[in-house]
Amino acid sequence: MTAGRDRRSVATALAALVLLTAAAVAPALVGARPANEVPVTDLPEAGDSLSNPTADAWGQTPAKEIALASAPSSAPNANDTSIEAVSVRAARTDGRLAVRLRWADPTRDTNFTGNQSATPHVNSFGDAAAIQLPTNASANPGIAMGSAQTPVNVWYWSGPTAGQELIAGGPGTSTMVNQQVSTSATYRDGHWYVTFVRNESIQTANRTDFTANEDVQVAFAVWNGSNAERAGQKAVSEWQYFPFGPGPQGPPYEAILWAVAGLALVVVIVATVIGIRRT
Amino acid sequence: MSLQGEDGATVELADGIEHQVAMVMDLNKCIGCQTCTVACKKLWTEGGGREYMYWNNVETKPGRGYPRDWEEKGGGFASAEQAGQEDVHGEREVGELPSEEDWGRPWEFNHGEIFYDGSDESLRPQGEPPEWGPNWDEDQGAGEYPNSYYFYLPRICNHCTHPSCAEACPRKALYKREEDGIVLVDQERCRGYRYCVEGCPYNKVHFNVLKKKSEKCIFCYPRKEAEGPDDEVRPPACASECPPQLRLVGFLDDEDGPIYKLVEEYGVALRLHPEFHTQPNVYYVPPFAPPQHTEDGETVDVDRIPRPYLEELFGEDVHDALDTIERHRDRVRRGEDSELMDLLTTQDLARQYRLEAFE
Ligand code: SF4
Ligand code: SF4
After folding, report:
1. Could you tell me which of A132, B97, B260, B314 has the fewest CB atoms within 10 Å of its CB?
2. In which element (H, E) is residue B321 found?
3. Distance of CA A137 to the CA centre of its chain
């Protein structure tokens, strides 16, 4: 092998290295939003208006369309769910996180008729929605209500009961806890608009804290009361995340994976180059 | 778990249950007075979303019952094997939720106007004229004159050995008490999903629309536990208030008690709809009726209540049960002794109610 060819191969290897590194890091640098990110917009001026589900301020936030599918569950008729997508917007103001869910449901199933409270029938169910978060923001709980080791915090709203906050460690275990989330709902033109607002930092144990400078996983569920949906018979999303971490993008594990992949490439290329030079 | 009695009969108790409360109702004595219904209502279901509920109801049979057509609404288990499985969640027979109209809406009466305001209207339900209600088909029965027939069927929760209501609940909010097998709804756990209401083939779980929780017969456990002002152990109110005293209350596994004898030894007290496989612990002595008459009023040797109908309600064992009772009646007519007839006609409260057998 000649010295010239040797140099050429080193140059080729270096070029390849640069290209590969660029390919690995580029998606992160150009800021294309990862598929599961639910963007959170800072709206310091919005104040209390964000608790109004149809406030103008919500127009300043990007909407994230999230597909829903029947949750795997042992509930009877678990596969019979009717809501196919939810549109989510999120904003921060005065140390509070506000999340708004909007979804299409042609029937309004609730016991609130204007200001009048009418008794729901013994065989009817209310529309409902929920936001699921890991109680420990850095944990990765199972999507189906977490587990005893990795519990989840659930913000729940339903037509007949209004807001509730729950903690669950697996299906069938959700327990109501002292509510720190405020909810508000509007039904308009065949759509529900429901807001959930909570302080970002929280002192109470077993509640998701959003101030730890890390991304926080989040999942969504919607029940259609007129289809008798309740409990595990619900339409749910995959895990998404709020980008609260330090990086401009991506949850921390994603950055770590890219770093590992990049390092591996460097090692392989260096080893190859050294190998070629020795031959 | 099964216990072997001295006479070889076995009692099946649910796993983990020490004793099982049980009740026998002798249908030959029920006069349909609804005193039991009212006793229960005054104690437990007067208001607060319970207006429409009758934990104890008495319906006319044949008839559509309370709630309307409950026998056709499903629930329970497909087989005894399925009922015996550890966890059959999702494999149960999913039932249908009765509507408000099926239960019958609670009627508001014009008592105030009539009794206090001097109105001379007649007493009647206010608002929309009702089209259905509990025991709406009272005394209608079936059969052709002069051989028409009916009887009354008082019903409470059966505190089943395999309660499909509990099996249906994904939150395990319904449970059987270890000490006596009474089936209760944990009000803290209940989130108003109503799978229990669908799951009970006897439709003995009710939904409280104000509390948004399920509620049901509690076998008057505070009375059983002597929680009243006089610290006395008392049977459920439906039993103690019944004018003809047709109910026997105690434990299925109390071998010296009347329930064990009637159910296990003589086999004359039967489960209602055993084909639902929940193994109820309320048992019925099936009803007799006078034999049929000809048009001219001649008595003929034909059952007035058709046996196939009784078999539909109580299963095949109804034939043996009726034959056994008939045999013992004959014995008494001949002046012989019959422990069975003694048990069925006792007026000794200590024999009729044995809730302290294991204390
Ligand atoms: S009768 Fe119904 S409610 Fe009562 S224990 Fe049996 S299944 Fe449950
Ligand atoms: S109180 Fe006794 S006789 Fe009267 S309806 Fe009830 S069970 Fe029948």
Report:
1. B97
2. helix B317-333
3. 12
Q: Whose CA is nearest to atom 5 of ligand 1?
A: B159
What are the structure tokens assigned to A246, written together? 């330090």
| B207 touching A (Cβ < 8 Å) | yes
Q: Is the peptide bond before B146 cis (omega within 30 degrees of 0)?
A: yes
pLDDT score for B124: 92
In this structure, the dihedral spanned by the alpha carbons of residues B26, B31, B32 and B33, taken in order and rounded to 10 degrees, is: -120
For A136-224, list the strands marked E by DSSP: 152-158, 162-168, 175-177, 182-188, 191-199, 216-223
| CA dist., res. B299 & res. B189, Å (int) | 58
pLDDT in tens, A121-167: 799 999 999 999 999 988 889 999 999 999 999 999 998 878 999 99
Three-state SS for B187? coil
Segment B308-324 shows an average pLDDT of: 98
Residue whose C-alpha is closest to residue A129's, from A155, A97, A160: A155
| B131 C-alpha to ligand 2 centroid (Å) | 25
The reply to whether residue B207 touches residue A172, judged by beta carbons under 8 angstroms, is: no
Maximum C-alpha span of chain A:
91
Rg (CA), chain A: 24
Peptide bond into A39 cis (omega under 30): no
Distance of alpha carbon A277 from alpha carbon A14, whole angstroms = 13
Over range B71-100, report the average pLDDT: 80
CA B278, distance to chain mean position in Å, is 13
- Percentage of chain B modeled with pLDDT above 90: 86
Residue with tokens 């004159």: B145
CB < 8 Å to B90, chain A? 74-76
The answer to whether B268 and B321 have CB atoms below 8 angstroms apart is yes
